Amino acid sequence: MPDTLTDARVLVAVPDGAEGARAVSELGEELGVEPVPKRGAMATEYLRDLAPTVDCIVCLSDRAEWVKDLSEAAPSVPLIVYGDHTPPAPVDGIVASDGGMGTLSKRVADQIRRSRERDRLAEANAKLTALGAYSREITACESVEEVVDNVVDAVTEALAYGECVLALAEGGMFVPYGDTLPYEPEITLTVAEGVAGRTYQTQESQLVDKYRTDPDRNRRVPNVGSVASIPIGDHGVLQVTTERTDAFDERDLEFLEIVGSHAREALSRLRRESVLRVERDRLHAFFEGLPAPTVYVEAEAGDPPVLADANAAYDAAFPDAPVGEPVETAFPTECERRLYCESIRSEGCRSVTVRRETAAGGTESMTLAFFPVQTPGIEAAGFGVYVSDVSLP
């Protein structure tokens, strides 16, 4: 987005009885804008009603009372005085009348740019603060749909963009999971087409100032002038659009990349958890069918492990398993308790020999092997398998 003052609104306050038309015209030509001239009390009245729309006030007089009135009418708007005396009222700059319109216009332009930069920094800080809450929400999401909803909310509410779309890659195609577009996103794109495809394939953010001349423009997309597009890893892309050209800059990309990084992290976590759930279900099915006595032990963060489940073979060999009890009370031998407590948060299989009384009567020597596994939402877990010559010849 180019640094231009063509959209700047400069109010030129002309004192009553003074010839200011020429000065207003020259200032406008120097700045490349159309100034808003107002005479006498009309200038202060204008500011009382429309100060938020004004970028800078130029007062073509150093008369103290009038400068004071202008300053009080719009204290947050930069005020430049064109005159030879320093008024007592607070002003942002004074340009001597013998400096000419060139000097005055340069001072006004510099002041507008500084003010806009301050405004941009203030806006950036406000957006970063707002993003903090949304980032935590996105990171904690428990479903893809939650991630999508929170990403769209972050983009439209915290960052105040009007049009956005979050498209996820499925089967080589982009699927719009969430959007605020003014039209139905029925256009189908492969993950190699359009600005979205370029973003996805390169895994680099794209800033398109003039979409209609972009080589990857999709002609079926209506009324798009600018695009800011960021990758969400291999999950998809996040885009904001507008009808205006040159609407976004690098700062816009930086904000969107913050949202995108949290979305990528959340979607990657959900994908890992989905894979782990499938593996866990497969392991539990195997667990239930094992002919050897087997238990499932798990531990929450910072808590001691508990006996979470036992298969039918374990119940047959050791009836009335205290499922739900801590390991320290669920198993009768010190050898078992130590193995579960010491191995549940480690890697690799460990085994010990234990002696247990069985339902058949008597005491039997067994090899107890512990296998750690990853379980979604659980800090640590694993299976304990009791093997003897009787159960596994």
Question: Could you explain how this protein is built, in words?
Answer:
With 393 residues, the protein is of the alpha/beta class. The protein folds into three domains: 104 residues, Rossmann fold, CATH 3.40.50; 134 residues, Beta-Lactamase; 98 residues, 2-Layer Sandwich (Beta-Lactamase). The chain has ten helices and 15 strands. The strands form three sheets. Strands 2-1-3-4-5 form a five-stranded parallel β-sheet, with helices on both faces. α1 crosses α4, α4 packs parallel to α7 and α5 runs antiparallel to α7. The termini are far apart.
List the helices and strands and how they pair.
Blueprint: E1 10-14, H1 21-31, E2 36-39, H2 40-50, E3 56-59, H3 64-73, E4 79-82, E5 93-95, H4 100-139, H5 144-158, E6 163-170, E7 173-179, H6 194-202, E8 206-208, E9 226-231, E10 236-242, H7 250-289, E11 294-299, E12 306-310, H8 312-317, H9 327-330, H10 334-343, E13 350-357, E14 363-375, E15 378-387
Organism: Halorarum salinum
Domain GAF: 142-267
Pfam families: GAF_2 (PF13185)
Given helix and strand content, the structural type is alpha/beta
Mean pLDDT: 88
Question: Architecture of the largest domain, according to CATH?
Answer: 2-Layer Sandwich
What is the alpha-carbon Rg in Å? 35 Å
Pfam family, one: GAF_2
InterPro entries: GAF, GAF-like_dom_sf
Domain GAF: 142-267
Protein name: GAF domain-containing protein
